[in-house]
From TrEMBL:
This is Cell division protein FtsX. It comes from the Bacteria. It is a multi-pass membrane protein. PANTHER family: CELL DIVISION PROTEIN FTSX. The keyword Cell division applies. It holds the Pfam family FtsX. It comes from candidate division WWE3 bacterium RBG_16_37_10. Belongs to the ABC-4 integral membrane protein family. FtsX subfamily. The keyword Transmembrane helix applies. InterPro entries: ABC3_permease_C, FtsX, FtsX_ECD. Residues 169-293 form the ABC3 transporter permease C-terminal domain.
């Protein structure tokens, strides 16, 4: 192990500028990758929160009886798309209106208890199902109006998808660049040590003895870069949680319906980035050694 480490240090001293460039680019790569994962996680958390709160409201005509509304409520509750249906009577609607406008006595005096319609507040399991239900309910008997903030929800979904796509493209691009840098670094190291490697083979050195320092170099670069970027991201994320900028729980975009404590998510993120760094460095250096080491 000592010889492996000494050989690694010699390689670094010979290619100082390239080593610095390698570490900087790989660190930026994992920062971008980590920020991409954070942005996706936060957008999915916001989307889940919106899904939990988004609803459509069905207002009924005065002549439509309460029993008829409750029958419709029971029918909607059997729909697989529906998560929750809440009945708001005329009295309930007036109480809500009074609470919202309690600082406007003149307005309250001008509104009678029976002027506000009864309604059903419907929440679906998926945001996409709300639009379909609007068209179905608008033609139903007794329905006066269906309110649904379609544009706001659709814009948010479009924004979330755009963020995901842009982040994914940037992350892939930086990973490719970082991989290329690892390969180039190992290739230049091999070129600068060409005669030395040939001598080692002539005196009976094994392939493992010759290749191990080069593979270790790439793997170590990946590990250090991932550690630095992980530390920065962890500090930023922890600060965000401490100051209330980030939520205490986040949704996992690859596991529907699951939320993690943000602190646990940070630990998982650090582990994923470090593992990615080690794998990227190991694969890049192994490919470079296999492709360019000729003796």
């Amino acid at each position: 192990m000592d010889k492996l480490w000494q050989s690694f240090l010699v390689n670094i001293k010979r290619e100082k500028l390239l080593v610095v460039a390698n570490l900087v680019i790989m660190t930026v790569t994992f920062l971008v990758l980590g920020m991409f994962l954070n942005i996706i996680t936060l957008s999915q958390t916001a989307l889940r929160s919106l899904e939990e709160q988004a609803q459509l409201t069905v207002y009924f005509r005065d002549e439509f009886l309460e029993d008829q509304i409750l029958n419709m409520k029971s029918e909607l509750e059997t729909d697989e798309r529906v998560m929750e249906v809440k009945y708001v009577s005329k009295d309930d609607a007036f109480k809500i209106f009074t609470e919202i406008n309690k600082d406007q006595p003149v307005l309250l005096e001008s509104i009678s208890r029976n002027i506000l319609p009864a309604s059903l507040e419907i929440k679906t399991k998926e945001l996409a199902d709300l639009s379909g239900m609007v068209s179905e309910l608008e033609g139903r008997e007794g329905v006066e109006e269906v309110k649904f903030y379609k544009e706001v929800i659709e814009r948010f979904i479009a924004w979330s998808n755009a963020v995901y796509l842009i982040g994914l493209v940037l992350a892939v691009l930086f990973v490719i660049v970082s991989y290329a840098i690892v390969v180039v670094t190992i290739r230049l190291t091999i070129s600068s040590k060409g005669s030395e490697l040939e001598v080692l083979k002539l005196v009976g050195a094994s392939d493992k003895y010759v290749k191990a320092p080069l593979v270790f170099q790439g793997t170590f670069f990946g590990f250090i870069s991932a550690m630095v970027s992980s530390a920065l991201l962890a500090l930023l994320s922890w600060g965000g949680v401490s100051y209330g900028i980030l939520p205490s729980k986040v949704a996992l975009f690859f596991i529907p319906g699951v939320k993690l404590e943000t602190v646990i998510y940070i630990v998982v993120l650090v582990f994923v980035l470090i593992l990615s760094g080690v794998l990227l460095g190991f694969i890049g250096s192994s490919v470079a050694v296999k492709k360019y080491l000729k003796y």
